[in-house]
Amino acid sequence: MKRFGLLFWDWLVKLQRFFMIVTAIAVVFLVFGPLVMREIGIPFPGYEEFLLTFAFWMYMLGSSHGSFEKSQITADIMSRLLKGRKRQIQQVVASVLTFILGIILTYWALSLVLWSAHTGASSSVYKIPIVVGQASILVGLVISSFYHIVYMIKDIQVLFLQPRTSVAHEAE
């Protein structure tokens, strides 16, 4: 089971990176391409519809990848001030709260996607369903929540399974 988990973890990260690269390339072409086309006299009306969709996917996949790397911007001064067991407890509390917020946001994103699918809204020129771009929010939050639950479990294990340090070490 552990081997399957590691394979899934690696596969998910590689898949994310692949789609991040694809969407980033698409965004660059959708910013640069219409500019060149306009200069040579070939109009590309409505390219913003494609640009917005690819930008949504690029951003949300990048955000979830930031969750994987734990490289997102935080205002976590407490981890700098606390040491030892207190820092571990603070990390567990932060992990639990992050996971809970992720689940709430994921639920809201699911509601948004279901509502968008129900209304059938689409873009004006190419009739791209709005749900295509909004689904990236749901996918990004699901992936981020997955990473957060794994890290939360790890933090809880560290708190309860790691040998306790002596009182003298904790005071340092």
List keywords for this structure.
single chain; 172 residues; mainly alpha
How would you sum up this structure, described in words?
By secondary structure, the protein is mainly alpha-helical. It has one domain. The chain is 80% helix and 0% strand. It has helices spanning 2-39, 47-69, 78-81, 84-119, 130-161, 167-171. The model is unreliable at 166-172 (pLDDT under 50).
Structural class given helices, strands, pairing? mainly alpha
Order of SSEs: HHHHHH
How much of the sequence lies in strands comes to under 5%
User: Distance N terminus to C terminus?
Assistant: 40 Å
Largest beta-sheet details: none
Gyration radius (Cα, Å) is 21 Å
Number of individual domains: 1
- The helix count comes to 6
Q: Could you tell me the mean pLDDT?
A: 89
- Low-confidence segments: 166-172
Count all strands and give the number.
0
User: Helix proportion of residues, in percent?
Assistant: over 70%
Globular, elongated, flat, extended or rod-shaped: what is the shape?
elongated
Write the layout of secondary structure elements.
Elements lengths: L1 H38 L7 H23 L8 H4 L2 H36 L10 H32 L5 H5 L1
